[in-house]
Amino acid sequence: MIQAGQPHSEPILSVRHLTTRFRTDLGLVTAVDDVSFDIHAGETVGIVGESGCGKTVTSKSIMRLLPERVSRIDPASKIMFRGMNLATASESRMRSVRGDQIAMIFQEPMTSLNPVFRIGWQIEEALKYHTDLNRAQRRQRSIEMLRLVEIPNPERRISEYPHQLSGGMRQRVMIAIALCCEPDILIADEPTTALDVTIQAQILNLMEGLKRKLNTAIMLITHNLGVVAQVCDRVLVMYAGRVIESGTVHDIFHRPQHPYTQALLESIPKRGRREHGKRLPTIPGIVPSLHHLPAGCRFAERCRFRQDQCVDHEPELLETSDGRAYRCFFPITQAPMAPTIGGSDVPA
Amino acid sequence: MWSFILRRLLYNIPVYLGIILLVMVLLRVRNPVYAYLGKNADAKQIEEFEKSFGLKDPFIVQYGRFLWNGIQLDFGESWKYKGTTVREKLLGAIPPSLSITVPALVLTSLLSITVGLLSAFNRGRLLDRLLVIAAVLGMSISFLVYIIFGQFFGAALPRNVFGEDWPLAIVGYGDWYRLSSVDIFGLTIPVPDAMTWVKFCLLPVLISVVVAMGYDTRFYRAVMVEECNRDYIITARAKGATKSKIMFVHMLKNAMIPIITRIMTTLPFLITGSILLEMYFNIPGMGRTLITAITDMDYPMIQGFTAVIALLYILSIILTDVLYALVDPRVRLS
Description:
The structure holds two protein chains of two kinds.
Chain A: E1 13-24, E2 27-39, E3 44-48, H1 55-63, E4 71-73, E5 78-81, E6 84-85, H2 91-97, E7 102-105, H3 109-112, H4 119-130, H5 135-148, H6 154-157, H7 167-179, E8 185-189, H8 197-214, E9 217-222, H9 225-231, E10 234-239, E11 242-248, H10 249-254, H11 259-266, H12 308-312, E12 318-319, E13 325-326
Parallel strand pairs in A: 3-9, 3-10, 7-8, 8-9
Antiparallel strand pairs in A: 1-2, 1-4, 1-5, 5-6, 10-11, 11-13, 12-13
Helix pairs in contact in A: 4-5, 4-7, 5-7, 7-8
Chain B: H1 2-27, H2 32-37, H3 43-52, H4 59-71, H5 86-121, H6 126-140, H7 143-162, H8 174-179, E1 181-184, E2 187-190, H9 194-228, H10 231-239, H11 243-272, H12 275-280, H13 286-295, H14 299-327, H15 329-333
Antiparallel strand pairs in B: 1-2
Helix pairs in contact in B: 1-14, 5-6, 5-9, 5-11, 5-14, 6-9, 7-9, 9-11, 10-11, 11-14, 13-14
């Protein structure tokens, strides 16, 4: 769908019509609705949106880490990776993909590591599942990995337990675990949300550097547009389970076409632009409940450009020739705002 | 680690002294001698008796003497069984209790941890629901019902049908008490051989396993369900770990703390035994011996037994702390 970025290369991961439903007490809900996107080797794709918009479910669907009992990926969904469809692959097939070809890091470094095993053991575990290295080689490799994620004294750290490390250090360990088998894709689910701002920047820089070094594609899930601006090549904006706009970071930030994207951008505080006595613009209203989705555009209720058509009909995702896509009857065609991106203007 | 253990031991010395103090004070609220000699004893008899057992001395002297003798495992002579020391009674009562409670604890723990893990991992599915219903049913029935039905269907009825060849006896643990024994520290300690164990111990063991299974399964299931929801489980799955690796390596080691606590708190009962079982199956274990001593007003026995039981309790608590430290690295530092 999105061919921007590297239009000539084959995508490494190709998600088509991904639909994931959950069984809840109030009935079936569609948490991810017909989501399609590609990830090419070595690029960083950001998925942004508010809490509950389906970004995490999208990533866990790809890894097939959702609880089987209550969730189901629609059989028409296709998650093509190296010639196999992950949406229907067997559990044992998935196990060989997880941690080896596609790895994942999570939001909460404080709880994501197993508290009762040593750091080294936890890195070596992944190597044990996916490589033929012997014990000594695994140990060597995990020390290398800790050095790669810039943890001082890796030889000593390796025999420490998670509680002896700070949050930032633990996220570095998570990255080391994720990258130790040199995966094609690293899925990072809000990797910096739980960290201090200064540590956030360090972790993002580290991921950026390692991506270059290992040529790993990154799928970055975040609600922080500043992070997106800093590290992503392309962006998917999600709203209530749907992709509502996608394009390159430059396009999305300079020429947003969907009113939701525009409103999101407006609600970033900008240094030097603050008008005294004026509150930061926010988007009125809340995300619609997945149990009671509106018949028309899912954003209509909160949209300042809403027309009657928007309430009655849901717009299709329209692809434009320049590799962008948006889901709106009345896209913003002019360029009303041009926030400078990157650098000091965007909060990290 | 050694300083950790030493510290724990030192902390618990005042606790233990307090327990002994409490026991001795409680036993002297009413003069034990009146209770023992009965209402027909005259003043001279009482006087003599009190003198011979040192009950005339100030309390602090009695306390000190009891402690000093206790360290040497000397708790005096039983009032009821003249010529038998409390120590002999104590050592004789421990093996019968252990031969029931140790196999029962091991079996119950292994079974209920496995069932709890399975149940938690299949949470919400049919298997889990059936197991939970079975556990609740098992808990809801009285211990006494298990004993009576167990005795009837396990021994009494089959003995009627198959005759004396049926391997399980109804009661009469005392039989092998005289049959096989070993000598330790110059004391004759009864130990059952395999056939006598089956005959007299298997039925009570099975009954106590059934009784404890309901509670333990529910407890371990709750522990495992909690572990199932932890973030590290997702991390392990994202690494490519198999289900059994997640259950038996990641989850089990994390669940060890509540498991150890659960098992350790039952350790003192290993020695004291289950009083009900020992009474109904006529097992001369610690529980039954202590109850008998209390009804006989046998004060040296009561003091000696409570002192040993309290000591075992405290030792098991220290052992629990040590095991925590071994399992959970976070405990070791603090």
